[in-house]
Amino acid sequence: MTNETTIEPTDADADLSPTESNAADEIDDATRAKLLAAENRRLREAYARSRRSRYRKTAAALAVVGLLALALGALAPSVREVLITLGMTGVFAAAVTYFLTPGRFVSADVGDRIYAAHATNGAQIVDELGLRDDRLYLPDGDGRARLYVPSSSDPDLDSVADRRATTDGPFVLSEPRRGVLLESTGAPLLAEFEAGLPGELGATPTTIAAQLCDGLVEQFELAASADPDVDPAGGRVTVAVENTAFGSLDRFDHPIPAFLAVGLAVGLERPVRLEVAPGGERADWLVTCRFETRSG
């Protein structure tokens, strides 16, 4: 004879509906995303402090050498000219090392002009070939994604879940998926972004969107703000962007929307459809990435 114990669900368990459970999961995702963003900022600040400390130590060493040479020059008349020259050089090098940041900056205006040539060429190719206005970012299964612009004769545009950037491109000539498959400006940005992440790129829309927006503002400084609005169930991420570095976001393969679309395509491992529109009173621009949801 055996004793069987049956555990009945409590009232609290019964009260937790599937909708509330999903909401709790989303709250957890949002919390994790905020923690990841905070950790990214902390690591970047720590790295910046480390670099400043290293250069300040170098500046201090140069200053000591320079001052020592000046002091010896005052005590040794026979080599005074050489020591004073060496001392002044050391002091000057110390000042330059201390006050100038060890980085190279390209102005936003120069960057925008460089990108404008790419945007003009891409838009002209699309117009000349009579392609659609749709911009699809397809993962290649190897941690990258490329821009696919389909032909107007593509009959299966509403179902792109099985599409991958598996051909070499740039011209896709096989029916019915004719179009162009191009390297995106967002791909190298994502590679640089992932290299600086403390962990891996997220796997949920909420986490990925938070990471990418943080990268746009904090790491690349391509925008003053990027505020994500995520609807995982609806397969949508909309980012409100303000004060962009490279002008209008509705141009061909703009780095900011492309970075968001490529990041989501790679992180979610599914195609992403990109839409860009003026933000009205909400923001300067609204960047919307749509993707097919997966059940289970």
Automatic annotation (TrEMBL):
<keyword id="KW-1133">Transmembrane helix</keyword>
<dbReference type="InterPro" id="IPR058288">
    <property type="entry name" value="DUF7982"/>
</dbReference>
<dbReference type="Pfam" id="PF25939">
    <property type="entry name" value="DUF7982"/>
</dbReference>
<protein>
    <recommendedName>
        <fullName>DUF7982 domain-containing protein</fullName>
    </recommendedName>
</protein>
<feature type="region of interest" description="Disordered">
    <location>
        <begin position="1"/>
        <end position="26"/>
    </location>
</feature>
<feature type="domain" description="DUF7982">
    <location>
        <begin position="29"/>
        <end position="291"/>
    </location>
</feature>
<keyword id="KW-0472">Membrane</keyword>
<keyword id="KW-0812">Transmembrane</keyword>
<feature type="transmembrane region" description="Helical">
    <location>
        <begin position="82"/>
        <end position="100"/>
    </location>
</feature>
<feature type="transmembrane region" description="Helical">
    <location>
        <begin position="59"/>
        <end position="76"/>
    </location>
</feature>
